[in-house]
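Assess the record.
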Amino acid sequence: MSDYKKDRNNVTNGGVGAFMFLAFIGAAVYFISKADGFWDGVLGFLKALVWPAFLVYEVLHKLLG
């Protein structure tokens, strides 16, 4: 048996990345659809990028006080 098969690293977290990508697309569609103008759409896109951070902050704030 070759050393290649023995030392191979198997990573199986692709499902989480796919879920986060779909969540980003959904958030972008939601925020951009609520926009009234171009700059509101740009702001909506930026909100779609960072909404998980605000979600984690709010959850930890509620749990830990």
Summary: The mean pLDDT is 86. The CA atoms of residues 36 and 44 lie 10 Å apart.
